[in-house]
Design a protein that fits this description.
The complex is a heterotrimer of chains A (263), B (325) and C (531). Chain A has 263 residues and is mainly alpha-helical. In chain A, 74% of the residues lie in helices and 0% in strands. Helices cover 72% and strands 0% of the residues of chain B. By secondary structure, chain B is mainly α. The relative contact order of chain B is 0.14. Chain C is 29% helix and 22% strand. In chain C, β2 and β3 form a beta hairpin. Chain C starts with a helix and ends in a 42-residue tail after the last strand. Classes of the chains: A mainly alpha (263), B mainly alpha (325), C alpha+beta (531). At the B-C interface, α2, α4, α6, α11 and α12 of B face α4, β10, α7, α14 and β19 of C.
Chain lengths: 263, 325, 531
């Protein structure tokens, strides 16, 4: 059951990743080639997923967009989960002053006007895909940290952990071998949803000129551009939306499969 | 416990100072400065005029003086005036607050009312068709862009069926209605916004609930409880559920600052005069007093939310204790 | 019988009073004190509540508004305004020359946060000759002065003891105009009611409701249920979504040139762009008709200069250059740009021809234009990147500091052609509007002359020549003047299309009694919308 899901999830993400890597080979058109005669064409044999407001082939843009969106989803969420896991686990396990300090830091991060932080960072480093992944990762780990901490607060008082302590197991052993695997459930959910979140955050940043720059496509910015044409061209909204959905489902399968394996 | 709460509440003040100093710094260091968007690049308005206006607003003073001035006003609960139209910041926020709070609270209640039982049901039926179909539905609602859902529902309910008004929060002649009709009118206008802002939230809550419930159902004490011959309902709702709500408490805590938030796309589509657009505009114009008021409000709510969550942990799981190791 | 006939004939001829117009707009007003606001929504609403001394008629000529007439004397240094005598403020107080004087004092008061002081700083003195005569003396002749008196006049008796910057008047205005302020719910709606004692005549439409709906898709859905009467359309909506029987039955569509143009401005301090031939080449390499076809779906016209087409300042002899990539390549070659290393990109002295176009965030049209230019310049071997920038950053970091290579922007086309601030070489300092750093002695001289004459024929010669020079020199690549697209519910009668648009005779619009939709509101009766 678990391994079937894992396999299926890996298959979805694997195919998408392959498409992204091989984009120049597999995409039928140049994603930035403009065609006045072919504006907003519905899906057809020539353009499988139709064309956008500049007459560009939507399929090619979605394939190229996978490069940006998948890597942003994966890396940003990877960073955010890693930081959240460490802070949450340490905070929950040790408690006391360390807990207070870390949680107050979480509070500060939660209240901080992130928009200006991103603005300042992109002004200094320039808007690049790499910077965006890092920034999204660095500003989105607080929820994970609090989730993990709550789980660990509860877990560490359970009998089996008390037993480990009694036999003198080291803290790191307890955290890594027992606490984190048992607390992983909410984190998996969090990460799965976080991937979609990051893909959309990127589009928001692109909209403000802080993300990827045109004509580079990403699923998020195709979606944003689709809004003004929704009344006549449903395909520009539906297909990138479907790509995001499939990605979330794929990651969800992987997460559940992994959980079964660990648990 | 009481001393713990008092200590945490007192802790809010230095935190608030810290957060405002940091925020002030970052806002000032970020590129761009306060601009009247409508003044800038308007050839009818000369450079000298713009410089004079900046001086009237005090933007030419050094950073720390600006901050101290702001703090001095704040200590008298004066958030200053918005620089875009000269109105007091407090007045601008208060006129937007009721709509935003109403929509956010209603949709939060709606999310929990639907998603919690749904999540539990999925956990109990783990791996069945129902569980898989639910996952697909939840993720579909989560991944669907807000504007798309909103416009689709408007088309259906308002144009095809003609049941609901499209946008705004009240009819044009609202003020002449008797009270019962006002209530009815508000309800009709709020229905779609609350629905749309809830749909995306189902996924999170129901998936967390499901995941934890599955975890809880596999614990030894559940087997013990079953072995004791307790009814399945008691086992599920008394023993398992209690252990599965922790992440939900965290989510509630994290949602509290969101009560004051609003998405700009969502508010624009439904033409709701909410707080999201107010703060978005403040951000794009670098309307400092308004932004700082937002920072303070969000900070207070965040810290209260986390405090409430921490207290609730101890309540739902008595093994968690604070104040000592 | 004869009496009956006579009556019905009269009824068919006369306009009916009543009904309301619901106008949808994407932005709310900020401030209804006209001296303090410069955003479009505020001017739109305040324009119905207040009057200036002068206004534009349907053919874009200045005529009297609160001023009945004026004289220009002493070698164009003095303007004497003779004011209307029968004008009342909405609160019943009589309008007089003292209100004009008060408005002027507020405009030049350094403590008042008005951005419009500039034109009024040129005034040496303003004297009230009697209650209905004002004499304005200028330091030097200044032709745009007359149009600057289109500034709304505010009431002295209500604002004398108020701080204008924080006054509650900004949200409860009282003016002399055809409509009176009734209520304002922030980001929701502003409601005005007709002024029965308006000095021209009582407007036929009783209520004006300005609704804020920030999203264009939502406005369009509202149109489909007839929830709004008047709204703007996007080119896509105009061409592909409003040809339905429903729209033909219930709405009238309008298409008029808008008062704005889009251009690509080059930083002329950048050595790449200092050669006129390069700028001309870029103009040949980009097909403006393609841009209009894609971005505006054909609803616009090619722009050749900074003046409103079909007005006196516009030079009809300046024709747009043809799209000719071959000619572009030749010109670039003359200027030293050729693909000497065969990598597909033009280069000169070992450096490839590449530059970045910056444009502001939130304008989808400009983003599309930038991408088309990017693509077409790639075709002739120029590597262009496009950057979208957030407004505040864009203005302060790029425009004000001249830290850019090329910018894609738009200017409004005012009715008054004087564009000294944009093209005069003295206006190139940080923060000033000649940010491309354009310098041309002849243009400088013509700009200075153009504002000294009040005689349209003399001014015409200046501005038409400037138009010619600017198109030849290409400090901007002039791209297009988009069409303004809008719809209005078909029950409104009396609309007369004119060069200035359709709104100029709003007080003459009316709805036949039988078709009126919003009846007089009675608290006890159910308010019915009939479809």
């Amino acid at each position: 059951m678990g391994s079937k899901r894992l396999l299926f999830g890996c298959l979805i993400i694997g195919i998408f990743s392959l498409l992204a890597i091989a984009a120049p080979l597999v995409s039928p058109y140049d994603p930035s080639s403009i065609d006045q005669a072919g504006l907003l064409m519905p899906p057809s044999a020539r353009h499988l997923l139709g064309t956008d407001g500049l007459g560009r082939d939507l399929l090619s843009r979605i394939i190229y967009g996978a490069r940006i969106s998948l890597s942003i989803g994966l890396i940003a969420v990877g960073i955010s989960v890693a930081i959240g896991l460490v802070f949450g686990a340490v905070s929950g396990f040790y408690g006391g002053l360390i807990d207070s300090l870390i949680m107050r830091f979480v509070d500060i991060m939660l209240c901080f006007p992130t928009f200006y932080l991103i603005l300042a960072v992109t002004a200094i480093l320039g808007p690049s895909i790499f910077n965006i992944m890092i920034i999204i990762g660095l500003t989105s780990w607080m929820g994970t940290a609090r989730l993990i901490r709550a789980e660990i607060l509860s877990l560490k008082e359970r009998e089996f952990i008390q037993a480990e302590r009694a036999i003198g197991a080291s803290s790191s052993r307890i955290i890594l071998r027992h606490l984190i695997p048992n607390a992983i459930g909410p984190v998996m959910v969090n990460a799965t949803l976080g991937i979609a979140g990051a893909i959309l955050v990127e589009s928001g940043l692109s909209f403000l000129g802080l993300g990827v720059q045109p004509p580079t496509p990403s699923w998020g910015n195709i979606l944003i551009e689709s809004k003004s044409t929704l009344g006549v061209a449903w395909w520009i909204t539906v297909f990138p939306g479907a790509a995001i959905l499939t990605t979330i489902l794929g990651f969800n399968f992987i997460a559940e499969g992994l959980k079964k394996k660990i648990g | 416990m009481l001393t713990y709460i008092v200590r945490r509440l007192l802790g809010i003040i230095p935190m608030l100072l810290g957060i405002t100093v940091l925020s002030f710094l970052v806002i000032k260091l970020a590129p761009g400065k306060p601009v009247m968007l409508q003044y800038s690049l308007n050839p009818k308005i000369s450079l000298e005029e713009i410089r004079r206006l900046e001086k009237l607003e005090g933007f030419d003073k050094p950073l720390h003086i600006q901050y101290l001035n702001w703090l001095k006003n704040l200590s008298r609960f004066n958030f200053g005036r918005s620089f875009s139209d000269g109105r007091p910041v407090t007045e601008k926020i208060i006129e937007r607050l009721p709509v935003t709070l109403a929509i956010n609270i209603l949709s939060l209640l709606f999310i929990f009312a639907i998603a919690l039982p749904w999540g539990i049901k999925c956990a109990l039926k783990e791996g069945t068709f129902f569980d898989n179909a639910s996952a697909l539905t939840m993720f579909l609602l989560f991944a669907a862009p807000t504007f798309w859902l909103a416009l689709l529902l408007m088309q259906l309910f308002c144009i095809n069926l003609g049941l609901l008004p499209i946008s705004g929060i009240a009819s044009l002649d609202f003020e002449y209605f008797p009270w019962w009709k006002k209530l009815w009118d508000l309800g009709r206008h709020m229905f779609l916004p609350v629905l749309v802002s809830s749909l995306g939230g189902f996924a999170g809550v129901s998936r967390y609930m499901r995941s934890n419930m599955i975890e809880a159902m596999n614990q030894p004490y559940i087997y013990t409880a079953r072995a004791k011959g307790l009814s399945e309902a008691t086992v599920i709702y008394k023993h398992a559920l209690r252990n599965a709500v922790l992440p939900i408490v965290t989510i509630i805590g994290l949602s509290i600052p969101g009560l004051l938030g609003g998405s700009i796309i969502f508010e624009s589509i439904f033409a709701i005069p909410g707080i999201g657009r107010l703060f978005y505009e403040a951000a794009t114009m670098r309307d400092l007093n308004l932004i700082m008021a937002e920072v303070v409000l969000v900070a207070i709510l965040t810290m209260l939310g986390n405090l409430i969550a921490d207290i609730a942990y101890a309540y739902v799981d008595p093994r968690i204790r604070y104040g000592k190791r | 019988m004869a009496v009956f006939l006579f009556l019905s004939a009269a009824a068919a001829l006369a306009e009916d009073y009543g009904d309301a117009i619901v106008s949808a707009s994407i932005g709310d007003a900020r401030n209804l004190i006209p001296l303090l606001a410069s955003d479009v929504p505020s001017s739109e609403v305040a324009g119905l509540i207040f009057n200036g001394l002068v206004k534009y008629d349907k053919d874009v000529n200045l005529i009297g508004d609160l001023a009945e007439s004026w004289e220009i004397r002493d070698h164009n240094l003095v303007i004497i305004f003779h004011l209307r005598k029968n004008v009342l403020w909405h609160d019943g107080h009589r309008f007089s020359a003292h209100d004009v004087e008060f408005t002027y004092q507020k405009l030049i008061d350094p403590k008042v946060k008005t951005p419009y002081g500039g034109d009024f700083e040129r005034i040496k003195s303003l004297e009230v000759i009697d209650d209905y005569t004002v004499k304005v003396t200028y330091k030097e002749p200044f032709a745009p002065a007359l149009s600057s008196w289109g500034m709304s006049v505010i009431p002295r008796h209500l604002l004398e003891r108020e701080d204008l910057n924080t006054s509650r008047f900004s949200r409860h205005p009282i003016g002399t105009g055809p409509y009176k302020f009734k209520s304002w719910r922030t980001q929701e709606k502003i409601e005005l009611v007709s002024n029965h004692g308006y000095f021209e005549h009582r407007p036929y439409i009783d209520r004006y409701i300005y609704r804020v709906i920030p999203d264009e898709s939502t406005i369009f859905l509202e149109l489909q249920t007839q929830g709004v009467d008047s709204a703007g359309l996007s080119p896509l909506q105009y061409t592909r979504q409003t040809d339905t029987p429903f729209f033909k039955k219930y709405y009238q569509k309008f298409r008029l040139p808008s008062f704005a143009y889009t251009y690509l401005g080059y930083n002329l301090r950048d050595p790449k762009f200092s050669d006129k031939r390069v700028r001309q080449a870029l103009n040949y390499a980009v097909d403006k008709n393609e841009i209009i076809g894609i971005v505006l779906l054909g609803l616009g016209r090619v722009c050749t200069g900074p003046y409103l087409p079909d007005t006196w300042a516009y030079n009809p002899k300046v024709g747009p250059a043809a799209f000719d990539p071959q000619k572009a390549r030749e010109l670039l070659k003359e200027a030293g740009w050729a693909d000497s290393d065969n990598d597909g990109w033009l280069d000169k002295e070992g450096k490839a021809f590449e530059f970045t176009i910056i444009t502001n965030q939130g304008n989808e049209e400009r983003l599309k234009v930038a991408q088309i230019i990017q693509r077409r310049l790639k075709d002739i071997g120029i590597k262009v990147s496009v950057r979208v920038s957030e407004w505040s950053v864009f203005l302060t970091e790029n425009i004000d500091k001249r830290n850019f290579e090329a910018v894609l922007l738009g200017w409004a086309l005012p009715r008054e052609p004087d564009n000294y601030d944009i093209f005069h070489s003295s206006k190139t300092a940080e923060g000033q509007f000649n940010f491309v750093t354009y310098k041309n002695e002849e243009v400088d001289r013509l700009l200075t002359e153009g504002r000294r004459y009040f005689d349209v024929e003399k001014r015409k010669a200046c501005y038409q020549r400037i138009h010619e020079i600017l198109y030849e020199e290409q400090p901007y690549m002039f791209i297009y003047v988009p069409d303004g697209l809008s719809v209005l519910h078909s029950r409104f009668k009396g609309i007369r299309l004119a060069p200035i648009g359709i709104g100029y005779n709003f007080i003459d619009w009316w709805v036949p009694l039988a078709e009126q939709k919003y009846k007089v509101v009675n608290p006890n009766s159910k308010f019915k919308i009939s479809n």
